[in-house]
Amino acid sequence: MKFSQLLIPTTKETPNDATLASHIYLIRGGFIQSVGDSGLYNYLPLGKKVLDRVRQVVKEELDKAGCQEVSLSFVTPTALWRESGRADEYGKELLRFKDRKENDYLLSPTNEEAMVNLVRQSVKSYKQLPLNLYQINLKFRDEIRPRFGLMRGREFLMKDGYSFHVSFEDMQREFALMEETYKRIFTRLGLNFRVVDADSGQIGGSGSKEFMLLADSGEDDIIVCDACEYGANIEVAEDFKVGDLCACGAPLRLTKGIEAGHIFQLGTKYSASLNATFLNEQGKAQAYEMGTYGIGVSRLLAGIIEQNHDERGCIWTDSSSPFDLHLIVSNIKDEAQVALAEELYEALRAKGVDVLLDDRKDRFGAKMKDYELLGVPHGVVIGKNLAEGRVELLQRAGMIKEEVAVEELIATLFARLGV
RNA sequence: CGGAGUGUAGCGCAGUCUGGUAGCGCACCUGGUUUGGGACCAGGGGGUCGAAGGUUCGAGUCCUUUCACUCCGACCA
After folding, report:
1. CB of A134 under 7 A from strand B?
2. What is the spatial distance between Cα A396 and Cα A404, in angstroms, rounded to a whole number?
3. CA–C1' span, A16 to B55, in Å?
4. Using the CA of A383, which nucleotide's C1' is the nearest one?
5. Residue A16 beta carbon within 7 A of nucleic strand B
6. Contact, A370 CB vs strand B, < 7 Å
7. For A54-96, how does the pLDDT look when each residue is reduced to its tens digit (9 = 90+)?
8. pLDDT tens for residues A305-322?
């Protein structure tokens, strides 16, 4: 795509309400835009591209693990929440409203009730189980204090999955599968994370694990072991003291984490309260054993930048970047530069490489500042060295520059981009 | 909900104390010059000063009420 035709409103100035690197750079890079009201954001073309790429990674890994994607109605009848008892428990985070006929509705902050309702209408036999259904769509929580941009918005994109089983043991098998699947997702996204024991909170259930992105800006206190994989949320490790040792013998360390995912062993809490049953092998009605699994997809955008940025801007990971390559023409009036850029652009696109071609009239400095701000991992500068037959390859992490001969450019790029 | 702030152009801000023609920087538009680290010159467009009420000859500025947002705290899959 050509920069000159895209809506990418980058700015030099930092918005006055942004303190977190991810918030600052996502706004300054023109990825997102504040709606003006607290905790609400618009995704501009670049932000939407990143969101879609992250969402795709999540979807691919879940589908590989046998999960099925659905999409539940965003507007949920409050009656369902009365059945489970959460209509009263959940409090003011729940945005409630009435339709023209005075029926009560809410905007889903999570969908245990709605998903149980879906399943109880269509699953009648143990032969249809197990089942793991998920969706990736908007959630709304009227947070007391939204902050940090996408990190804690009121409206956000979340993947929420729910599994249904004939036995507690089978649910635990799925729970373990989801833990492994989540690890693959976060690893593919290039994130530094830990799985920690957690408190089950309002969702309820018998056991849960959180997926914490390690970052100083995290809102959660967690303890981790650097020698093994152990980690725990401070909420469940209340007796922790500095200097305590892990079960493996190494010292434990207190650090900060961003909660990016949370999986729960629910049991029959919701299936029982919503009277959702199937007929088992003995022909007896039985409540489903359930697990529930969440990933904060829009929060991942913020998390990726919290872990990957420098004082100049974003540094996207390969699997999350809005483009595979950022191609800069230094001087748009130099016909040789433009010709080579067009040729390269078409050659790469023919290979399925998503290229951002900076064909703007601006000066070199302005284009480089935007390259650094946008944070595409790989870049090419076609500039004044073209006169000597050379162009420059850029690596955003560390801003590493390397000159290559024009004849070697395409082969070098194909190798670097893995195409 | 407690504490502290802030609302003036798309963004960042000054002006408010001491009432008297609505300002600056960035961004944007036009023309020209410029093109390896956020260019320059000239011209230009854009505002119910968060809202409502009041005082006054006159209110961005003073008074009252109200709304919104930000930060700290409590809260939070």
Report:
1. no
2. 17
3. 35
4. B36
5. yes
6. yes
7. 999 999 999 999 999 999 998 999 999 999 999 988 888 899 9
8. 999 999 999 999 999 999
**Cβ neighbours of residue A330 under 8 Å, at least 6 residues apart?**
A337, A364, A367, A381, A382, A383, A384
- A361 CB and strand B closer than 7 A: yes
Name the nt closest to A154 by C-alpha to C1'. Answer: B76
Q: Which helix (H) or strand (E) holds A327?
A: strand A325-329
Quote the pLDDT of residue A295.
Answer: 97
Lowest-confidence range among A147-151, A175-179, A203-207, A212-216?
A: A203-207
A271 touches strand B (CB under 7 A): no
Structure tokens at A229: 């994989």
Which residues, listed in sequence order, are joined to residue A208 by a DSSP beta bridge? A264
The phi, psi pair for A306, rounded to 5°, reads: -55, -40
User: How many Å does it take to go from CA A36 to C1' B53?
Assistant: 27
A219 touches strand B (CB under 7 A): yes
Q: Which residue is nearest to nucleotide B37 (CA to C1')?
A: A365
Q: Which domains does chain A have, with CATH numbers?
A: 3-310 (3.30.930.10), 325-417 (3.40.50.800)
Tokens linked to A126: 């143990």
Find the helix packing angle between A335-350 and A406-417, rounded to 10°. Answer: 30
Task: Output the pTM of the full model.
Answer: 0.96
Q: Give the percent of chain A with pLDDT over 70.
A: 98
Å from A363 (CA) to B40 (C1')? Answer: 13
Q: How far apart are CA A271 and CA A414, in angstroms?
A: 52
Nearest to A312 by CA among A235, A257, A394, A251: A394
| Total residue length of chain A | 419
The pLDDT of residue A245? 87
| Alpha helices for A65-109 (secondary structure H) | 78-84, 86-89
Burial class (CB within 10 angstroms; exposed 0-12, middle 13-18, buried 19+) of A303: buried
- Strand B contact at CB of residue A121, distance < 7 A: no
What are the DSSP calls for A219-234, one per residue? SEEEEEESSSS-EEET
Residue A47 CB neighbours (<10 A):
22
Q: Is the CB of A36 under 7 A from strand B?
A: yes
The answer to whether A158 CB is within 7 Å of strand B is yes
Q: What six digits make up the tokens of A336? A: 């040789």
Structural element, H or E, at residue A395: strand A390-395
